[in-house]
Design goal:
Structural class: alpha+beta
Number of helices: 25
Largest sheet: 7 strands, antiparallel
Number of strands: 21
CATH architecture of the largest domain: 2-Layer Sandwich
Strand content: 15-25%
CATH class of the largest domain: Alpha Beta
Length: 675
């Protein structure tokens, strides 16, 4: 498309198609980053080649027309979009433009900085304190009536005390990360397609024709705006507005901050980028607003976005690329995992060329085929995964992919066991399984044997020095010196690292052994309860099931594992080699939570998610990700998972406010619970 007008026409049609998929059908075709590139290109071309119909361009409009399935609702004030900044330079230029228009020094300007939640914009209308209507954004002027569905959202107050007249509260409907994970787990159990991301799941849940379906989805609502806040709530700044909304019972972003000056504002947006994975909800950026409402009025808005606000978009965690082929890897348990080989693409700041496909059913459900354009997602340190196919009606797709019937490593049969979704190599002598067992045994989260990575483990197995993980503890320097790349110094260092691993506590040994379904949390629960492996191995099934943080599935797995003849022999060899089979209590911290499971949901002020869990574990407790009848209490922070609260209330598990967390750590008890 060399002609600019043809390219503009194509871009407008393509962006309109994507708007309809995203805003109307809750099924985006492209990741946000790729969509943003299309919009930026269209704006550049429209600026270089002005046309009389530019005002009707999708680059100049908000959202998409509402779905005719729902009754239309005319907004009292247009729900605008936000212009985007993609780096610090964009933010600084925006702040300087705003300051110039006001005739003030940008370093004296106060900014409110909030997380940009990846959800669905919503306006909720109250009359004389009573919720009467709720509507989606739609095209900014007219939205869809979703009142019945919004009444099922736990974090939406049904009434506002002592607030007369009309009040329009705006914010974002979203699914907390934990609630999204539980929803997808439910989808998997039902054999239904998983949701690609929390935003799609939240939007699809809110726009259900049956409100009972919405009620099952544990949606949350985060408030951040009110129409005419000065007259309605008598507040004059964003900071004061958020505080007022919180007193009215709305969930607001606890991480929001008001800062003064451009440098402080940029630093605060960077804080959100650094901590995006610590937050209980998905964010794709930070929103910056002029804090003072009178200054906002002076700055004004365009037809599609306020000039007094901007969104800093973070590096994309989803991009599109080409799926070259699908291969299968064999893990330490024999599990055969399909993975995608991709055209390299930069996602979340790193180059991705491979991504997990989980299992045979997921490949079939997503209908992934070599040659497809696919969406790849990578969030922080999470293994990249293929979210789905980019639908292109004009593309001729290849044949559906079939899962292999033989192991690519040993040629043995690949089988699905019982009703499990996973496929396994059932050859116990498969070299790929042994390799991954040794690598996992030595990994940082297990026994942390420095210098024993995959390449070194492969050497040891190929040389016949290791046929079982227990063989590691009988290796001598003389055995290793004959291997390529291992002279006396490095061989001595590796033997020393293996010998030091003998002192690792029982909880880490349980992780290293790869007991099925037993992760670090369950391992700590088991080890702290029994203290020695001998006691664990002798425990009846009913005692295993009674431990907080250990359910029937984990208990059955442990019970069978410790009685396996192969494991009995391995543990005897480890004992004879001097490996510690005990969980030492060496902490000087009082074990106030010993044997108790404490679930944390939402953000606890002063603690990251990992720090809160570590604080519980240091005091002898466990911090499982789910609530059960054996849970001691649930600590409720900011933006908690609605499903955890619902389950805790149903089971009668005490709910403890985040302000009680430190008291809980000190004494193992709390002063009061919350409703």
């Amino acid at each position: 498309m060399s002609d600019a007008s043809e390219r503009v026409a194509w871009l407008r049609a393509e962006i309109t198609r994507h708007n309809d998929a995203y805003f109307v059908h809750d099924a985006p075709i492209l990741p946000d980053a790729d969509y943003d590139e299309l919009v930026r290109e269209l704006r550049r071309l429209e600026a270089a080649h002005p046309s009389p119909d530019a005002s009707r361009s999708p680059a100049a409009t908000v959202g998409a027309p509402p779905d005719a399935t729902f009754q239309p609702v005319r907004h009292a004030e247009a729900m605008l979009s936000l212009d985007n900044a993609f780096d610090e330079g964009d933010l600084r230029a925006w702040a300087e433009r705003v300051a110039r228009s006001l005739g003030i020094d940008p370093d004296g300007l106060a900014f409110a900085v909030e997380p940009k939640i990846d959800g669905l914009a919503l306006s909720i209308h109250y009359d004389e304190g009573v919720l009467t209507q709720a509507a989606t954004r739609g095209d900014g002027a007219t939205g869809e009536d979703v009142t019945a569905n919004v009444r099922t959202v736990a974090t939406v107050p049904s009434s506002l005390a002592a607030v007369p007249g009309r009040v329009d509260v705006r914010g974002e409907v979203f699914l907390a990360k934990s609630d999204f994970a539980e929803l997808n787990e439910l989808q998997r159990r039902r054999g239904d397609r998983e949701f690609a991301n929390p935003r799609n799941a939240a939007a699809g849940s809110l726009r259900q024709k049956n409100a009972a379906v919405t009620a099952e989805r544990a949606l949350s609502f985060l408030a951040y705006q009110v129409v005419d806040p000065v007259n309605v709530l008598q507040v004059t700044s964003q900071g004061a507005l958020l505080a007022k909304l919180a007193t009215l019972g709305f969930l607001v972003a606890a991480e929001a901050r008001v800062v003064v000056g451009v440098d402080a504002m940029i630093a605060q947006t960077s804080w959100f980028e650094d901590h995006r994975h610590d937050l209980p909800f998905e964010v794709d950026g930070a929103v910056v607003k002029v804090d003072d409402f009178s200054l906002r009025s002076a700055v004004g808005s365009t037809s599609r976005a306020p000039r007094w606000a901007i969104a800093r978009k973070f590096p994309p965690e989803e991009r599109t690329t080409r799926l070259l082929t699908i291969e299968v890897s064999i893990g330490r348990t024999g599990r055969a995992t399909p993975y995608a080989v991709l055209e390299p693409v930069v996602v979340a700041g790193s180059t991705v060329s491979m991504a997990t496909l989980h299992n045979e059913d997921q490949v079939a459900l997503k209908d992934l085929r070599p040659g497809d354009r696919v969406v790849v997602r990578k969030a922080g340190d999470v293994i990249p995964e293929v979210v789905g196919v980019v639908v292109d009606p004009a593309q001729d797709r290849g044949a559906p992919w079939s899962f292999p019937t033989t192991c690519p490593e040993c040629g043995g049969p690949l089988e699905r066991v019982g009703e499990e979704r996973d496929t396994y190599c059932v050859n116990p002598n498969c070299p790929a399984q042994l390799l991954q067992q040794v690598v996992h045994f030595a990994s940082r989260g297990a026994l942390d044997i420095e210098g024993l990575g995959e390449q070194r483990a492969a050497q040891l197995i190929e040389a016949g020095l290791v046929r079982d993980v227990a063989d590691l503890f009988s290796l001598g320097v003389a055995d290793l010196e004959s291997l390529d790349g291992l002279a006396a110094v490095s061989a001595t260092a590796l033997v020393g690292a293996v010998q030091r691993a003998k002192a690792q506590p029982l909880s880490r040994l349980l992780v290293a052994l790869g007991v099925r379904h037993v992760g670090p949390v369950a391992a700590r629960a088991l080890a702290s309860w029994f203290e020695t492996y001998q006691q664990l191995a002798a425990a009846p099934l009913v005692e295993l099931e009674a431990i907080d943080g250990v359910g029937p599935v984990i208990a059955a797995s442990v019970y069978q594992f410790v009685r396996s003849p192969e494991v009995v022999e391995r543990m005897a060899r480890l004992r004879d080699a001097g490996v510690t089979l005990r969980e030492p209590i060496t902490s000087s911290i009082d074990q106030t939570l010993r044997g108790r499971a404490v679930v944390v949901t939402g953000t606890v002020p002063g603690f990251s998610r990992e720090a809160a869990e570590a604080a519980i574990v240091e005091r002898g407790g466990t911090s499982p990700g789910t609530v059960s009848a054996k849970t001691y209490c649930v600590v409720v922070g900011d933006a908690p998972g609605a499903s955890k609260l619902t389950k805790a209330r149903a089971l009668g598990v005490p709910l403890v406010g985040a302000d009680e967390f430190e008291a809980l750590l000190v004494s193992g008890s709390w002063r009061a619970t919350i409703a």
